[in-house]
Amino acid sequence: MDHSLGLPNEMVATTFHYLSQPDVLRVARVCSRWRSVARTVPEFYAHLILDGDHFNKLPAYEQRIETFTRQLRDAASAGFRLSLVISVQWDADEQLDTDYSSDEEYHHDAYDLDEVMPKLVREAVIRVLPQYLPRIVKLHVALPAACFDDLQQSLHYPAPELSSLGLDFVGSGEIGEDEVLGSLSVDLFNGHAPKLTRLQLANVPLVEGVVIPALSRVPTLYLEYYADRDIPVIASHFPAVRHLSLDDIRHVMEDDEDIPLSPWSTLETLVLDVVVLPHGLPVMLGALITGQCIPNVYARLHSEDYADIGIAVPPFIEHFQSSIHLSLFHLDRAETASSYPPPLLNIPPDAVTYQIELHTVANSNCLTLLVDPDEAPSAVVEVANLMREHIIYLRFAFSGKALILDAFDSLQQLTTLHVDLDIRVNGRDIEDGRRPVLYCPRLDRVVAYAPGQYGLDRLDQIRAILHDFVPEHLPLLVLQGNPLPELVHSPLLLSDFRGVIVEPTQSFSKTLL
């Protein structure tokens, strides 16, 4: 008995929102009414994955591809829109080296992959795509370079519902490592993909002077494995991009190469994962960053050949010449994943990252730099040298206080200090006169936060803040979280600060966003 018969279609559709893949197809098989209602939910589509990567035998590929094509037919016949992930790779050379004791039949199968796989993928997968293009909302394809031309031919038809496209041509197949792919066709989707908002490309050549109409208006672009010299070409291909991610920009130009780069006025967000070279940033990447003020920049910086990370900092902060808020923290991987977009999430498990984040007060522009902790001092010193006269608000964890004291000699404009009490200290820490102190003549407000309830066990730590950051006049102390009355009314605190107030903040974010 269908107990949903008495419910309006809108309520049934709301219930479908709570389902996950592959429950879409299960809903379609319940009854005609459920199938009809499900088709009206915009976010409700069949998500199908062909993950045929590096099987040992040709029959394994054939079986997996046959299953995928059957699921594709079923979903389409049920009237659902489609989200497809097609990833097929093979490496015959690697298989031949896997087991030298294997029999002749095994070697024959491995050899057949090079001969048969391009044809199998072309006939069973690529050539059927055109009939499904009107229904596809998301398409991500990762195929060997041998399949590049065949896939392009299958995508010469309109894709009216396509919102997200990913293309990655990597791996083996028939094409040797030294062969170069042609460019994407100007006839891609016959120039018609009006709903396309997200594009991801890896190992896909972009040719100067060739504009692809179907992709030219995409606002969100992810690129991986491109050369520094490609940046002007990227700008000409995608003039409407607002959110750009560049991952693994390792190839660089010579300093004397003169390639013009016009301002990319539409850019609102730039996300980078880049290797810093001995002379600093890659040439065109540096020109992109300094050529215009991009409102939001996120950059994960790595060093190569013992390059000084600090040398890459000045281009990023060239446009930060007004009052700023600065945040300095160590982040674990979970904190990075919850705060920052890809490719910044490509951090090894259990890795710790150091975050430098700047916000401008005037227009809320944001710069976030992520570096390895052992490279953080160089980057922080560079920020201190260039921005000390602009910092009015500083946030940091108490455990990282020493780095700040070493990098800065004064903060003349600082008015607010915000500290996460992540460790405990005792009274001897306050009396250590050998440590440097930071003069902050305008400091007017000190904000302290500790997790959970905290009391006099944090007294010495809070007093140590005022010992290290020396104001001209007594500042106000703001205790966030759940401080106990014994701390709020401590005579020692009342003698060090002009007043103590409590704000009921229950958490302390390490990002200013």
TrEMBL record:
SUPFAM superfamilies named in the record: F-box domain (SSF81383)
Domain F-box: start-end pairs: 1-48
InterPro entries, sorted: F-box-like_dom_sf, F-box_dom, LRR_dom_sf
Protein name: F-box domain-containing protein
Species for this entry: Exidia glandulosa HHB12029
